[in-house]
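Sorry to interrupt, but I need a hand with the structure work. Could you write out one complete protein record for me, on any chain you like? Could you add the entry underneath, on a fresh line?
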Amino acid sequence: MAGELSGGLYLVATPIGTARDITLRALDILRDADLLAAEDTRQARKLMEIHGVPMAGRQVLPYHDHNGAQQRPRILAALAEGQAVAYVSDAGTPLIADPGYRLTEAAISEGFPVTSAPGASALLAALSVAGMPTDRFLFAGFPPPKGGARLAFLEGWAAVPATLVFYESPKRLGASLAAMADAFGPARRVAVCRELTKRFEEVRRGSLEEMASLYEDTPPKGEIVVVVAPPELVAASGEDLDTALLSALKGASVRDAAAEVSEALGVPRKRAYARALELLREADA
């Protein structure tokens, strides 16, 4: 066995941008592990080369969503022999929106030691700079790519009393922010964090309506994390909502009245729209 690393699976966090954002312990594990597994083998080799970690004749096994079922038996066999196996994701902390979950689950099921070597994480980096409450947060991963499924997905989180964190692709950012404005209310605060720890790092903050408009026709480049503030603790009462809707319906369509009241009271547009329809049915009864 290389070095003094005991047998088991080691989940090693790697930089999300700046190569120097790696821990000394992570470098020790990469140096001493008997077997290396990586979501992107080229990225892993490049990182080790930058930091002068020798390969010493070892393999770097590719392990990702498309080959996990085939590679797990090979890695589990190495663990059964008492080898130290280091797994690194493409960037950041393994298992956070990453295929390493199944590997970890299998190793635990077989009774092998599993150890975390914590470090960089886009999720935690975004929470640090977003300016949102961090005493309670929920990571919801990537929203579905299609409109209907995405809106239904987001509506499930609308009332959660916590800061919400999402990953999103640049090309879908504008559509996702618009869907969030519909699901959470247009006035809810959001921070769009781009290229964290990299040269062109940027954080833009504002309301969901403002950010949806900003990115509607101009998709950004790079890795994106979206951080949405919790719902306001003091929500509009049912009486306030009804009063505002009845007033708005006097001079506008149901859709326009719902949009107006949603923005004014900070309630989800779907809730305002549904209640407006109920009020019209009650008036006709």
Observations:
- The chain has a mean pLDDT of 93.
